Amino acid sequence: MAFVKGAWRILVAIKDGLVLLFLLLFFGALYAALSFSPTPGKAIGSGALLLDLDGSIVEQPAEVSPMALLSGSGPEAKEYRLSDVVAALDAAKSDGKVKAVVLNLDGFLGGGQVAIARVGKALDAVRAANKPVLAYATLYTDDSYQLAAHASEIWSDPLGGVAIMGRGGSNLYYKGLIDKLGVNTHVYRVGTYKSFVEPFTRTDQSPEAKQANQALAGALWQNWQDEVAKARPKAKIAAYARDPAAAARAANGNMARAALTAGLADRLGDEAAFGERVAQIAGEASSVKEGSFASIDLGAYVKARKPANDGQIGVLTVAGDIVDGEAGPGTAAGDTISDLLLTALDEKQLKALVVRVDSPGGSVMASEKIRGAILQAKKAGLPVVVSMANVAASGGYWVSTPGDMIFAEPDTITGSIGVFGIIPSFEGTLAKMGITTDGVRTTPLSGQPDVTGGTTPEFDQVMQLGVEDIYRRFVGLVAQSRKKSPQAVDAIAQGRVWDGGTARQIGLVDRFGGLEDAIAEAARRAKLDPAQAKPYYIEKQPDKFAQFIQSIADREQDDADAPRDMLARQAWVQRGWASQAVADVKALVTGAGVRADCLECRGYGAPQSRNAAEERGVLALLAGLWR
Hints:
Layout lengths: L1 H34 L11 E6 L2 E4 L7 H6 L6 E4 H13 L3 E7 L8 H16 L4 E8 L1 H7 L4 E10 L12 H7 L2 E7 L7 H4 L5 H25 L5 H6 L1 H7 L4 H7 L5 E2 L2 H12 L12 E3 H8 L7 E7 L2 E2 L8 E2 H14 L4 E8 L1 E3 H16 L4 E10 L1 H4 L6 E4 L4 E3 L3 E7 L1 H6 L24 H26 L3 H7 L4 E3 H6 L5 E2 L2 H11 L9 E4 L5 H13 L9 H8 L3 H13 L4 E4 L14 H15 L1
Parallel strand pairs: 1-4, 1-9, 2-3, 4-5, 5-6, 6-8, 10-13, 10-21, 11-12, 13-15, 15-16, 15-17, 16-20
Antiparallel strand pairs: 7-18, 14-22, 17-19, 18-22
Helix pairs in contact: 3-4, 3-13, 4-5, 14-15, 18-19, 24-25
């Protein structure tokens, strides 16, 4: 028997060794494949540059772990880096191989008005170079039509059309549910308009929040209409959006025909007919599939023409929620971003710094950590220029205060200069289940915050005073940065959000302009030739194995699950309420204690990647509390 056991152990060891050897050989071959870099441009043929945007345009794509991708629990949609899309279009203007640019917007999820306007500007430049831009979608919504308006030819499916909704919508309010659950929310805040906490303390918006939000939505909506009207003068966009029912009645309910009549579309046809039209311009593809045309893949085109990241103007991206600790791209983690910047200052010969902000804020501590690192750049003698993208509010504005000059766009959402803290306690919930708490204290703060027994008045007072102190610091930072008195800043602060146009008028930003304008200004301040200055993007280098897995996932992923008729599409888009609920519960239960965050901003930026497994987990928490 001992002999048999020994022989079995030997066989198991041989098996384990062979498996290990196989894995080593597999990953060695995989690494060699990933390390191989083809000659740039070699594999690019001629045809139409195809922007098949089945996802969202973002400032910085989120990092997804290979295990999440392999397990199928990664994000539901792709993310396209704004600078990559713009660079591809800029290259296409003078590239003889690019015969046209094609936008397939059936799966486009948006990107925020600022990002879409920047892509639209690049499309205008392509058209100015006498190259056609053709757009196709079954059904256009606000974001996809803002992009399509810059095309020279807009196609819609005969069963589709254009659905313009305008700015605005609803937020979820949890006060009724919280009361039923017996949860006690302890809120500490400063700012008449600091409405982030209202979903936990009210059943509706406060009058002050509604007034500010209406003004913001109205300004952004007017800017949207102005851009579309300028890009496509023949589109009767104002009348179509103002009375869509009249347009539908006039076309007997045929919304595609209504769009054609209103000048919003040029031609109606299915995807095959559209492909045949593109083939007349760009050439036919070798595929036998109906409606195919010679196309150039966007990803391959970007990779083939991506310049070396070796400039003298550092570009630090602060994108996503600002959180404590470390995180990958797409999330503005205080430790990660500050470490990246400090390392770049030590290792690179940078002459100036541009801080690109696309964040609604988050943790005060993390915001201050990032601001401190930016101050180190200033201490080293580097000019600092801030470039605001879709959103640079609350904590996003906090990290902008070191800037010598702040650029924004009219559609940028900024301000929200306010602070709050929120802590839930569950003594009421536990009491419903017959559970109580008791103990001893040596000071009024012993065991605080007690999430099972409730907070003491002394703790509440200390927290409120602390939040008020941080607000005064925030106002002081803005006053110093903007060369205003604290009283003047307080009058435009109080947590209120502003559109970029108004923010410029009240002095929260200096100029209108995008990232390229900020880089040019930084170069001038560093006494460099703006025409010759190149950026150095201060980012975590992507993991090659993760890129390999992502490329496989991208090939397998398509937009087939996105409904294309009007009713189903709008219902599908509105499913974001679940993501909002997840984010709100996380902010209540696990968020940073003291926050500079903006509730209103979250509906106006690029759609955030949703993780289905994460949503299920937090919603399960809610269900557990309910039971």
